[in-house]
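Ligand: pyridoxal-5'-phosphate. Inputs:
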Amino acid sequence: MAYNFDEIVDRSGTYSSKWDDEVQKELFGKSGLLPYWVADMEFKAAPEILDALKKRVENGIFGYTARPNQYYQGVISWTKRRFGWDIERDWILFTPGIVPGVNYTIQALTEEGDGVIINEPVYYPFSRSIKENGREVVNSPLVLKDNRYQIDFEDLQEKARDPRNKLYVLCSPHNPVSRVWSPEELRRVGEICLENDIFILADEIHNDLILGDNRHTMFASVDKRFEDISITATSTTKTFNLAGFYASNIIIPNKEIRDRVEKVLLKNSIGNQGPLSIEAVMAAYGHGEEWLEDLLVYLEENVQFTRGYLKERLPDIDFTETEGTYLMWLDFRAYEKDGKTLERVLVEKGEVALDGGTWFGDGGDGFMRLNVAAPREFLKEGLDRIVKAIREEYII
Ligand SMILES: Cc1ncc(COP(=O)(O)O)c(C=O)c1O
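Predicted complex:
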């Protein structure tokens, strides 16, 4: 491996949200926890990106900056090369992060009181954004069948048929259950939405983080007709550990939909980006691919290590396959079915911070989300703490 992911990087003094005492105290009721929650990585960015940033800092002037054509070409060629989807320069809008993009999409394509469909358990800012905008959360829960999460297409069909529901937010790959949706599943989603005039926002922030033999298909690439009803959100920030640069690509092929979203962005003066953020994105798409390939190998090894290590020590723990993302969805229901109790045990007895399953809505009780994007030694320390907490509370 050309890159070193074993290096432990001291993040103190960097104001990392994941490590911050006040943030931890507020969310977990305790600070000083070893953090395996927020989805950023304990790895330094690729040296190619750091070099580009250093060079830019050396220039010393950080005035207003325009994204050059090269920036957009980076997004276009990455999307084509890695996913086979041809997109055009005009289709790409900028928002400072995907969550803002979700909010602007909700504002552009729905009215107050309209329903927005999601599949819980799912990334919790979705329901927050829907509610904050005065829209209704319509949950079409995922089902766990044969130890694999599935979309309940009959339920989705029923909810899509309800004329009050206007938008479906698809999480692909799915955080937190780590599913990489197959082309067949995506086709069924698309057909249901087409038939019922439902717009689709495909949040594909994790689409580069695909593990093992799994392959990601971009939703809009499945069928030309799907391009016409969808917005796709991608980004370098998850893939390359650049979340603090707040940069995402909101890809909208249909001009009418694009105009509606663009109008909301204009109304809020959204679109400008900082010079370091621009450099980081260009360097990531331009020179980051080898680093990413090594990262994926390391992440897959971390997932396998975690499965073996925990299963040996906590035989009743369960897992679904981590097909994508670097987030494992751990099933502790054999030990504890009550989500809040489980979360308290891990904080108090283990002094670890993981995302509680209950945070992700229905279906999260008894599960925890573990972020394994960390040097193995640091990961192992967290696993030891989890084992200690569960053993103390439920086994010994
Ligand atoms: C599915 C999903 N969407 C969006 C985000 C955050 O995106 P951003 O930081 O660009 O707002 C995350 C972060 O974990 C995520 O998992």
